[in-house]
Write a structure and sequence with these properties.
Layout lengths: L19 H7 L23 H5 L5 E3 L5 E5 L7 E8 L2 E2 L14 E5 L9 E3 L8 E3 L4 E3 L2 E8 L17 E6 L19 E5 L2 E10 L6 E9 L5 E6 H23 L26 H5 L3 E5 L4 H12 L9 E6 L1 H15 L16 E3 L9 E3 L5 E4 L3 E7 L24 E4 L9 E6 L6 E7 L21 E14 L5 E6 L4
């Protein structure tokens, strides 16, 4: 569809091999042009990708392409749900009163052998009703029965509502007499959780006729280099090479983020490639995050975000380590800005300060007025209470509309309002890393097949060891890669309810 009646050509698209006919149809001679390059309609400006972001941290290398494993050790500080309490031969119910009054003994039943002889344990009312364990438990089927008594000078007993099924109990300490005391207490261990992932291998190819080697285009082909600089290619093969690299980079980033293990519960794989061997796909960042903290929301607020960040920080991270990166789309970044603005708008008056480059209102130049001003700002970071710091990073894939198809009523796509909260860790101890295999040159392989005469990718001619008789060349790119989140419990996702 033309953008205006003065548009002379419609944008053309095609897949696969580019022939002279494609060039003739697309870059044919034009009347005098106002610019020497094409305008790329609806092109997405590539921002910082997940791969480029994680490249600031060390890569995790493994010796082979076998599955890779790591162990995650959790805290041994736990609380255990109560199965039931028994007093004077009966199961305690919520309406009972005076359980354990005057130092009488009662029983607590748990599914685990967790508490030790002499432990002081507490339920939900910690300091109000402390309880002392009177010996090792008796096993009763799959449960463990502890004889206990009240401590803390509580003589009137404990209400039955504090001893109902599901109430949770934890260890405080193990008090003893100061004269000729005997052994009490014990320690608890948590076995490491073995985590596993496997590699994802991707590959692309592109074929070009041999006579495309020296083809120039009448209009330059715009591109963006890896360092963000704009450039114009006048040779068609320059552009082809750039597009191959760009396409493969996009596929790598999608594999790192979106890949999902295709391994079945019986250990087999249901996908088979052209060779007859199985295709293995490991879990990417998203799939590894899903096992932890996922919250769906209808209305985004800073309070909602703060609560989630506190859950990731409290009693887990030191005050100096509470730095989180949120990857979101442009709409999500705007929504975050508005939420912070709603919170801080009453903190100060935004005044104009003459000559202050950090002021919100500054001088600018305009033919409309001799004292023209400009105003504006955007919040991209927020320092919450308890030294929780969060920084917004916009990932262009959250806004990309060919992959993300569900619209959001406030504009854009629903994916753009998603917030993936990543605890990255430090350079010395990163929590998220790209995984590669030792001995590979980088993580990519690049190869060519070409016929007997011309290779438009390399400029080589006269091939005495032709791969085929056709005067053409094929470029192949291949890599095996993976991703690791060592502790997924330190990540979280805030997802619009539209994406449930």
């Amino acid at each position: 569809m033309p953008l205006a009646k003065f548009q002379m050509l419609e944008a053309k698209t095609w897949k696969g091999t580019t022939s002279k006919n494609h060039l003739g149809a697309t870059f044919n001679a034009q009347p005098q042009k106002a610019a020497d390059y094409m305008i790329q309609l609806l092109a997405m400006h590539r921002g910082k990708t997940l791969e480029s972001y994680l490249s600031q941290f060390p890569t995790k290398y493994f010796d082979t392409d076998d599955e890779f494993y790591w162990e995650l050790i959790g805290s041994s500080s736990r609380n255990i749900p109560l199965v039931e309490a028994r007093y004077q031969g009966s199961t305690v119910v919520s309406t009972d009163v005076g359980v354990g009054a005057a130092g009488s003994i009662f029983d607590l039943v748990f599914e685990e052998d967790w508490f030790a002889d002499g432990n002081r344990i507490v339920g939900e009312r910690n300091e109000v009703y402390p309880i002392r364990v009177l010996g090792e438990p008796l096993q009763e089927g799959t449960n463990y029965v502890y004889a206990v008594e009240l401590m803390g000078g509580v003589t009137g007993g404990i209400p039955g509502e504090e001893l109902t099924s599901g109430k949770r109990f934890s260890v405080d300490f193990s008090p003893v007499e100061d004269t000729m005391s005997r052994e009490v207490g014990d320690v608890r261990f948590t076995a490491p959780i073995s985590m596993r992932n496997e590699w994802t291998t991707i590959r692309i190819k592109h074929k070009v006729p041999g006579n495309m080697l020296d083809r120039k285009v009448f209009m330059g082909v715009p591109a963006v280099s890896k360092d963000g600089k704009k450039m114009v290619h006048n040779m068609w093969m320059h552009h082809v090479d750039y597009v191959v690299e760009e396409t493969f980079s996009e596929e790598k980033n999608k594999a790192i983020m979106y890949s999902r293990s295709n391994r079945l519960s019986n250990g087999e794989y249901q996908n088979t490639g052209k060779s007859g061997f199985v295709i293995r796909e490991g879990d990417g960042i998203r799939a590894q995050m899903e096992v932890s903290n996922t919250v769906f929301y209808n209305k985004f607020t800073l309070a909602l975000l703060q609560d989630l960040l506190f859950n990731l920080s409290e009693s887990k991270l030191g005050y100096g380590d509470r730095f989180f990166v949120i990857r979101t789309g442009e709409r999500g970044a705007t929504q975050f800005h508005q939420a912070v603005l709603d919170t801080v708008s009453g903190w100060q008056t935004f005044n104009y300060i003459q000559g202050d480059k950090s002021a919100l209102i500054k001088n600018t130049s305009s033919p409309l007025h001799s004292n023209a001003l400009t105003a504006g700002f955007q919040f991209t970071e927020y320092l919450a209470p308890n030294n929780v710091r969060v920084k917004i990073e916009v990932d262009p894939w959250y806004d990309e509309r060919s992959r993300n198809k569900i619209p959001h009523p406030d504009g854009g796509v629903a994916e753009s309002y998603r917030y993936d909260i990543l605890y990255i860790g430090s350079t010395e101890q990163p929590n998220i890393q790209i995984a590669r295999i030792k001995g590979q040159d980088g993580e990519e392989y690049r190869g060519y097949q070409w016929g007997p005469f011309r290779n438009p990718f390399t400029g080589d001619r006269n091939n005495p060891y032709a791969s085929f008789d056709e005067d053409a060349a094929v470029i192949h790119k291949y890599c095996t890669l993976g991703a690791i989140i060592f502790d997924p419990s330190r990540t979280a996702s805030l997802i619009p309810s539209l994406l449930i």
